[in-house]
Write a structure and sequence with these properties.
With about 170 residues, the protein is of the alpha+beta class. The chain has helices at about 15-20, 25-30, 40-50, 95-110, 125-135, 160, and strands at about 5-10, 55-60, 65-75, 80-85, 115-120, 135-140, 150-155. Strands 1-2-3-4-5-7-6 form a seven-stranded mixed β-sheet, with helices on both faces. The radius of gyration is 15 Å and the shape is globular.
C-alpha cells in the first residue's frame, strides 16, 4: 500500500471540487445511483451525497490534495461503501482500489464489521472489475428497495480486502 496516501475527513471547501467531478447525468447516475438528483445544486448535492454525515472520507495525496472520495456506514451488519469516486485527473493510477481498500479497513475497524458491501449499477463494468479484483462477490440483498433491479449487491470479507497485494490494486478507475 502506498503510505503517502491517507484517508482524512473532508473539509467544506472540498465539496465544490467534488461537485466538479460529476459533469453529466450519466456520470451522476453511475456515481450517485439512480436516486441522486441531476442537475444538482450545492444544496441537493450535499444532501444526496450525505456530505454532513459521518463516514465520508477523502483519499489525500502527499500534498493533502483530494484524489478520491467515498463513504462507509453500517448496513445489514456490514461496512457498506458508497459514493466512491476518483478525481477525473487521477484515474488509471489504481486510486479506486486504494480508496476501497482503505475505506474497508477503517470502516470494518470503526464499525466492528467483518465484511464489506456495496451496490454497483449493473452497467458499470469498470467499477465492477475493480471490486471483483478486490474480492467482492455478488450476493442477495437481504432487504427490499425499488431500485434493486438496477444494481447488484456485492460483499467481501474485510480481511481479504485489507490483505490485497499492491499488484491487485492496479486498476483503471
Amino acid at each position: 500500500m502506498d503510505k503517502s496516501l491517507r484517508l482524512v475527513e473532508p473539509v467544506p471547501q472540498q465539496l465544490e471540487e467534488l461537485m466538479s467531478w460529476v459533469t453529466d447525468a450519466d456520470s451522476c447516475r453511475l456515481w450517485g445511483g439512480p436516486w441522486f438528483r441531476f442537475p444538482f445544486d450545492a444544496i441537493s448535492f450535499r444532501e444526496d451525497c450525505r456530505w454532513d454525515e459521518a463516514g465520508g472520507r477523502v483519499l489525500a495525496g502527499p500534498d493533502g490534495g483530494m484524489l478520491a472520495f467515498g463513504r462507509y456506514y453500517l448496513r445489514e451488519q456490514r461496512c457498506h461503501l458508497g459514493h466512491l469516486i476518483v478525481s477525473p485527473a487521477e484515474r488509471g493510477r489504481g486510486l479506486g482500489s486504494a480508496l476501497v481498500q482503505r475505506l474497508c479497513a477503517e470502516g470494518c475497524r470503526q464499525l466492528r464489521a467483518a465484511e464489506c458491501s456495496l451496490f454497483v449499477l449493473k452497467d458499470n463494468a469498470r467499477a465492477r472489475s475493480v471490486y471483483q479484483r478486490l474480492g467482492f462477490r455478488q450476493a442477495s440483498y437481504p432487504g427490499k428497495a425499488e431500485w434493486l433491479e438496477l444494481c447488484d449487491y456485492l460483499v467481501a470479507p474485510g480481511d481479504i480486502i485489507a490483505a490485497a497485494s499492491p499488484l491487485d490494486l492496479q486498476d483503471h478507475g
